[in-house]
Each structure stands twice: as structure tokens, then as C-alpha cells.
Amino acid sequence: MGRRRHRERDGGVFVERVDGGVAELVADPDRPRAWTLLIDGAPQSHVDLDDPAHLSFAYQRRLGHLVDLAAPPGRPVHVLHLGGGAFTLARYTAATRPRSTQQVVEVDAALVRLVRERLPLDPGARIRVRSADARAALAKVPGGWADLVVADVFGDARTPAHLTSTEFLGEVARVLRPGGRYAANVADGPPLAHLRGQIATAAAVFPELALAADPAVLRGRRFGNAVLVASDAPLPVAEFTRRVAGDPFAGRVEHGRSLADFSGGAAPVADSAATDSPAPPADVFG
After folding, report:
1. Which letter does DSSP use for residue 99 in this model?
2. Cα three-residue angle 52-12-46, rounded to 5 degrees
3. CA 274, CA 185: separation in Å to the nearest integer?
4. Which residue in 62, 121, 171, 201 is a FRET match for 181, CA 20 to 30 A apart?
């Protein structure tokens, strides 16, 4: 990369070219020290430096519920974040579970520099950030290290193919401690073939699954985000369902037979057949 180019715009917007495109930090008019990160116009993260426990995006709230349910309240946990964005979930975990140990993997080194400079992390938080490919970094994490692995990786608004396969999830399972959980942000739209395939892929590796999303997304009416959670042990489905239903944008949780029916007989995805997740429609962020 050459010398970085950046500029301020009127109205609380900071623009800079990063490895993955054009990053914009847009000030939140309702929160004095809050910002939304966009890459090439696609919203990636929202961060409130005064209140890192505030989660603005619906899918991040659902991931936050899984952080809350990863262990008894306040107990420190080990979390591996694949995909960094503005480190929203790592900040949330540090705020709600002090003394937690976290690793964040973000392939875009220029984005990491931008976020560190403009949205600095709490220096007391035990958060290590690495600029690396998510799967390559995953392979270097010791077995049984993580209580929670969060996958939220997008390039050009698509999840890379090598992070969608049974081989990838086999590595995730290796890194999780017994009873640990995997949580992924999966983006898809009609006819939901990618989402159904990701459910089948997770089911080939983990015996326990649940899925949370907006009902309109689950009915195939629009493109959106779903949060898939998987484990080798029973999940707190009832409490997760209660929390998701109580969100400002209420969601629905599928589990057990209803989730198997939803997947519609989709086949697990191996490395040899994996593809990037679908590109969102041009007007989805409009």
C-alpha cells in the first residue's frame, strides 16, 4: 500500500481508503461519541465510545446475547473474533465481562490502523488484534482455547468461500473448549440457498444448532442477516429466544425440528464446492 489518503467531510464524516475499499466513519447524530463504519457504502459496525455495551445493529445485538449467555454473568471468557470491523463485539465483551481475554483477527491492516486511531480501544481491555486471514489465524489458535468463536467476515459485502465449509468448521470445533459455542453472521436473501447450506454445514460438525433472524428474512422476503449458533452441548434456546423476541427489531429463533425443516435437505458444503456468500442487492443499503 502507498501513502494513505484520507479526508474529512462536513457533517461528521471521515473518509479513508483501506485495503478493502473506501472506509467511512459517520458520526451518530444521537450519540456524542458514536460512529458507524461503512466500507464501500455497506454498514459494517457501530461503536459508542462512551457506552461500548450499546449495540445498534440488530444482528450485533443477537451476537451480544450470545456473549451474555456464554457463561454466568460477569465471568471472564476467552473469545476469538474472526472479522474485526470496528471491534464492536470485542468492546462489548470487555465492557460486560471485564478481564476477558480476546483475540480479534481482521485481514484489512489499513482498516485496523484506522479504527485504532479514530476509535481507540480501552487500553485496559485484554484485546489482541491481528491483521491476518481468518482461517490461517484460526489454525494457529491452541485447541480448546475459546469459550466463543464469533465469525463476522465480509469482503465486498460477501463472506469468503473458505470460511463457509465443513473443513473450516472442523477447525472452529478444535479451537472451542467442550461446551463452547460458535456464532456466525450469515447474510443471504431469496431463495436462501446459502443460509440453508450453512445450517447443513454446521449440522455436519456440531450436534446443537439455533438460528436467529428477522421473520421477513426467514420467510425469504428480503435480504438480511441471520445469526447461526452451534455447539457440542445443549444451547440456552429458551433464554436466547426470549431475548431475541424482546429486541427493538424483534427476531425469531429456529431450533431442533423447525430448523431442520427450514434447511430443507440442503447438503453440507466442503472446501471443494464452497463459494462466497451472495452479493447483496444494489439497493439493500440505500
Report:
1. T
2. 30
3. 17
4. 121
Distance (Å, rounded) from C-alpha 227 to C-alpha 195?
10
| CB contact set of 9 (below 8 Å; sequence gap of 6+) | 15
Strand partners, 17: 22
Q: Could you tell me which residues come within 8 angstroms of residue 263 by beta carbon, excluding any fewer than 6 positions away?
A: 196, 199, 200, 203
Kindly report the length of the chain: 286
Chain centroid, CA 151 distance in Å: 5
Grid cell of 255 as nine digits = 431450533
Residue 172's CB is within 10 A of a number of other CB atoms, namely 25
The dihedrals phi and psi of 167, each to the nearest 5 degrees, come to -65, -40
What pLDDT is recorded for position 7? 53
- Give all strands (DSSP E) within the chain, no chain letters: 6-9, 13-18, 21-27, 34-39, 42-48, 78-82, 101-105, 126-130, 146-151, 176-188, 208-213, 224-231, 252-255
Average pLDDT over the chain, rounded to an integer: 94
End-to-end CA gap in the chain: 30
